[in-house]
Design brief:
This protein is mainly alpha-helical. It has helices at about 20-25, 30-60, 65-75, 75-90, 95-110, 120-145, 150-165, 165-185, 195-215, 240-255, 255-275, 275-285, 290-315, 320-340, 345-375, 380-415, 430-460; strands spanning about 5, 15, 420-425, 425-430. It is built from 17 helices and 4 strands. A two-stranded antiparallel sheet has the order 1-2. It has a two-stranded antiparallel ribbon with strand order 3-4. A hairpin with a 2-residue loop joins strand 3 (about 420-425) and strand 4 (about 425-430). The longest helix is centred in the last third of the chain and has 38 residues, at about 380-415.
Length: about 475
């Protein structure tokens, strides 16, 4: 007969399931939160594609610029508002924050089919992103309140699957919605809803956010004790105190070696690994000679690698040291990226990129688990707001400089060695895309060296929470 367990939130006594994932899914509170994330993530991918399609259509002759401006609008708020959002998340009821943000995003989506200018779409994207900047840290900060520490890695694996595993589902549904839009537009009385493919996608996305709000409204989360302002008022936001709380959150990051080491690893992984996306088409065309189809194969290899890494980590996570695994995943990812860029065969390059994906999955899941385990509940919202700010900055920088880096290194290679090295008939090409990916791999390895050094400093400083914490369990270096 299986052992009995007690749900930490509801207090319900149940039979212990046989696997870790079964135990997590039997936790009804986390299961509701995970289903909410699956629903909203699926809809969000559809909405992302619909917004890009709408921007391209209303941008007319400047479609590329229109899409670019709208995408920047989805990133820019994070640089200015994420830290403030973290302060609010740490002061307010996190469940209410998530419900209000879901409803706000749904209301914004309902207006999108009636927008006919790029700047109107930019404004709507800014509003959407502001809600997301509140919802995401509130969700991440709530997970440790629903899941015991020993299950956080599994919970983060499931969250990663919900966030990114729903992309092919969303893309497929968006394609299907074109046929749905044709059928609905022929129904009498629905003409005023402007039911083209993009509008149908927006309405579908709106429905997923409402489903998410309903699921989250049924969660049981602990109430945070509000900080009083200097005059003792807990209801009014003291902006001077808010500034000090933002400063406190960032100070905690830089004064805690473990937290700063994890963020260094995450950021360098995104800076280096993120270059695969903008450089991938160039690498596929110039190095492997496989064109756009080859880039699709590389992308599939990366996605399958991430999925495999998350699945493998979920199986063995209870038998590995998390800090060691984080370090090794980061270092191995840098090596795999350099090896993949060194291949001229599409098959071998895809295998290398899949290895990068495996390591990336490990870095993401273990990194978020370490942050959740080693951050106090009253600071967690601000910490994850800072995390999302740095993540967005890393991705933006990676996407922005990758093309220029590839072009610059390619021109330098052409000028110095005519784009290749070798003797007689044996030549090895040194295209800009290959050199840029080598640079990206070295950047990740530099982050790996920095993380190892910071973790050693964490042990010396005794910044871990004590026996049983992630750092304390490490073998001395």
């Amino acid at each position: 007969m299986p052992d009995s367990t007690v749900d930490q939130v509801s207090g319900t006594v149940t039979s212990a399931p046989s696997t870790r994932f079964q135990r997590i899914f039997c936790n009804q509170q986390f299961f509701k939160l995970w289903l909410a994330q699956v629903a909203s993530a699926t809809g969000d991918w559809i909405g992302f594609l619909a917004i890009a399609a709408l921007a391209a259509r209303i941008g007319a002759g400047n479609a590329g610029q229109a899409v670019g401006v709208v995408m920047i609008a989805r990133v820019a708020p994070g640089f200015f508002l994420a830290s403030l959002g973290g302060v609010l998340v740490d002061r307010w009821d996190r469940k209410k924050v998530m419900v209000v943000c879901d409803i706000g995003r749904a209301a914004t989506l309902a207006l999108l089919p009636f927008i006919h200018t790029v700047w109107g779409l930019v404004l709507a994207s800014l509003v959407m992103e502001c809600f997301t900047l509140m919802w995401s840290p509130a969700k991440e900060a709530s997970v440790p309140n629903l899941v015991p520490d020993e299950f956080l890695t599994n919970a983060n694996s499931l969250s990663l699957a919900a966030a990114y595993g729903t992309f092919p589902v969303g893309a497929g549904l968006f394609a299907l919605l074109a046929k749905v839009a044709e059928w609905l537009s022929s129904v009498p009385g629905l003409e005023s809803l402007k039911l083209n493919q993009e509008a149908t996608g927006f309405y579908f996305d709106m429905l997923t956010f409402l489903i998410s709000a309903l699921l989250i409204s049924r969660l049981v989360l602990p109430h945070l004790t509000r900080r009083a302002s200097e005059n003792g008022d807990t209801k009014r936001i003291d902006w001077a105190q808010a500034y000090h709380e933002i400063k406190e959150g960032w100070g905690y990051i830089f004064q805690t070696p473990l937290i700063s080491a994890v963020l260094l690893g995450l950021c360098t992984a995104l800076l280096g690994g993120g270059m695969v996306v903008p450089i991938g088409p160039l690498f596929s065309r110039d190095v492997t000679g496989s064109g756009a189809a080859g880039f699709g194969v590389l992308t599939v290899g990366l996605g399958c690698g991430v999925a495999a890494g998350v699945a493998a980590l979920s199986v063995v996570q209870n038998r590995v040291n998390r800090v060691r695994t984080f370090e090794l995943s980061l270092g191995a990812g840098g090596v795999a990226l350099i090896v993949a860029a060194s291949m001229s065969s599409l098959t071998l390059a895809t295998i290398g990129i899949a290895a990068v994906g495996i390591c990336a999955g490990g870095v993401y899941v273990i990194g978020f688990t370490l942050l959740q385990e080693n951050t106090t509940n009253d600071l967690r919202g601000r910490i994850f707001s800072a995390v999302y700010t740095l993540v967005r900055l890393s991705i933006l920088v990676s996407f922005a400089v990758a093309g220029f880096l590839a072009d610059g290194l390619g021109s330098l290679s052409d000028h110095l060695v005519h784009g290749k090295v070798g003797v007689k008939q044996a030549h090895y090409s040194l295209q800009g895309a290959r050199l840029a990916l080598w640079f990206a791999g070295l950047l990740v390895l530099g982050g790996f060296a920095g993380v190892v050094k910071a973790m050693r400093r964490a042990r010396r400083a005794g910044s871990e929470r004590g026996p049983g914490s992630a750092v304390a369990d490490m073998d001395p270096a």
